[in-house]
Amino acid sequence: MKRFTKATRVLSVAALTVMGAGLAACGGGGGGGGGSTDSVTSAKGPIKIWYSNNEFEVKWGKAMVEAWNAGHADQKIEAQEIPAGKSSEEVIGAAITAGNAPCLVFNTAPVAVPQFQKQGGLVALDSFPDGLQYIKDRTGDLADQYKSSDGKMYQLPWKSNPVVLFYNKDLFAKAGLDPANPKLGTQAELLDAARTIVKTGAAPNALWPSPASDFFQAWFDFYSFYAANTDGTPLVKDGKATFDSEKGKQVATMFETLYKENLASKEVYQGDSFLEGKAAMSLAGPWAIAAYKGKVNWGAVPVPAATAKSDTSTFSDAKNVAMYSACENQGTAWEVMKFATSKEQDGKLLTESGQMPMRKDLPTAFPDYFAKNPAYTQFAKQAARTVEVPNVANSVEVWQTFRTAWAKSVIFGNESIDTAFKGAADKINQLVAQK
Q1: What's the mean pLDDT in 27-40?
Q2: Signed CA dihedral, 361, 366, 371, 372: sign only
Q3: pTM score, two decimals?
Q4: In sequence order, what E strands does 277-383 have?
Q5: Could you report the per-residue pLDDT of 161-207, keeping only the tens digit for each?
Q6: Distances from the Cα of 383 to the Cα of 105, 142, 347, angstroms
Q7: Distance between the two ends of the chain, CA-based, in angstroms?
Q8: Which of 86-100, 176-190, 206-220, 325-339 shows the lowest mean pLDDT across its residues?
Q9: What single string gives the DSSP state of each residue in 107-127?
Q10: pLDDT band at 86, cuts 50/70/90?
């Protein structure tokens, strides 16, 4: 899928394994390296930051740095793209182990935060007198999802790409479906549309979510639908897996039907199946608007639940900002975090990238932008109803456990959903209980 051709969005299990290798040397607990002392958190001076290699974020990042440096001659930012590697998370983890991580990374994946914290690589933003208040004022209640198990905040919620269901209007019309009223409000309606699309030959597949075993693939099939079906219940809540439930199995059964009836392919597609007309629907965030402009006559609807709802939740697909404990001038780093996530800079990020700043009341915060770019409005509204990956111990292994059970049961039918989900939930409960 297109979203994972970007290096900034790829995260491998091997990368997290490599990161874990440095734990013995680094010690446990977040905020290592003296990050909680007053002298460090108030220290001012030059800092280094990394940002994504996404072309739109690079442009924004360079302009942001220029604006800061123009007014802070004695606290200048030295910025660069995240160094090349198998994944940005592997590079960050290695830098933590080596003790030379930058002060800030504007591309920290929430799923990696528990591991970085365990390495002692992150600074708790609670260390700053206005830390929690600033985050709460900017982000609102959604910020609570990003707290770690110790109750502290090791990441500043920055930007999201709320997932919705895109559909190809031309292919829907070819199948005899009304592109202006696609009737995709429930899982049953989605299945009906899927059967019509394939039966009429409008497209060889109705949907083509990646069947690959990578743990993060679960975010773009099961998790987005599960969020919609449960009004935003995370995969793990209060230390226990939640998906081995009626609502979790409703989502699994829908996908099982798609695969059993050959409405979705079990093969990995090398490319973008939606862009190339191989599938009539796709799960994606607002990044897709620019990708599909002039290439696909698309529409988009909220991810459907089992029963019709006026508002549904979805997966956030967020990237955040974190401060790393090797930073000596943390006082400056915190001021840069606030500057880079100010309303002015959020507006520039939105304009430059089309990604949604994690700011409460987003549509009213930037009315001129959304008036000029109405295609993005539904994503701004959806951004207030998102669920994040749970901030729990062994986060990546938790997701890999789920993904393995999903593939075995839902995609390939080698085990019943009941058996696979129960086994995965039991194992995940054990993983989360480990420290």
Answers
A1: 49
A2: negative
A3: 0.90
A4: 279-284, 298-301, 314-315, 319-323, 356-357
A5: 999 999 999 999 999 999 999 999 999 999 999 999 999 999 999 99
A6: 22, 10, 15
A7: 34
A8: 86-100
A9: EE-GGGHHHHHHTT-B--GGG
A10: confident
- Specify the DSSP element, H or E, that contains 77: strand 77-81
Which residues is 305 bridged to in the sheet?
Answer: 186
**What's phi and psi for 333, nearest 5 deg?**
-60, -40
Contact of 380 with 362, CB cutoff 8 Å: yes
Q: What is the pLDDT of residues 179-190, one digit of tens each?
A: 999 999 999 999
Binned at pLDDT 50, 70 and 90, residue 37 comes out as low
CB 41 within 8 A of CB 333: no
Rounded to whole angstroms, the maximal C-alpha distance in the chain is: 69
The residue written with tokens 């839902």 in the block is 410
CA-based R_g, the chain, Å: 22
List the alpha helices (DSSP H) in 274-329.
287-292
Count the Cβ atoms, other than its own, within 10 Å of residue 230. 22
Q: How many Å apart are CA 135 and CA 359, to the nearest integer? A: 9
Instruction: Give the residue carrying structure tokens 């995609």.
Output: 411
Burial 192-202 (b: 16+ CB within 10 A, else e): ebbbbbbeeeb
H/E element, 129: none
- Token pair belonging to 221: 């099939």
Nearest to 207 by CA among 420, 381, 418, 411: 411
Q: d(Cα 341, Cα 323) in Å, to the nearest integer? A: 14
For residues 362 and 383, is the Cβ–Cβ distance under 8 A? yes
* Nearby residues of 50 by Cβ (< 8 Å), 6 or more positions away: 79, 80, 81, 82, 83, 92, 102, 104, 105, 106, 107
